[in-house]
Fold this protein.
Amino acid sequence: MPLPPGLRIAIEPERLDGWLDPATGAVSLRFSARFLCSIELLYGPTVLRVDAELSTGPVRSQRHRVQGEPMGADGTALLVGVATVPRCHDPLLDGFLGLPDEALAVLRCRFSPTPLAAASA
């Protein structure tokens, strides 16, 4: 869905790490980021912090039940997760987004091998 004119959301990733089991295709990633929300010339930027565990396994929360899909032979996987988004202490944004609230993440991705950088002699 496109953003309304003037609305800006910048994502500042802080952490992305985890593991992949090639034998089963299971993947688990920890994702942390700051989302900076602003409305051109009127409002902003306000920071929302998001921290989520994304995995190919099942995810269950108060409102969501979703199942990821392990990595297939073509390297594609479906990662799912739920993050609790805390209040940002901005009454306008907290009210508009109904914070605190849960955010559902569904990410279809492709993993591909990356050659290691050659060591210098």
Residues 91-97 form the longest helix (7 residues). The chain has a mean pLDDT of 88.
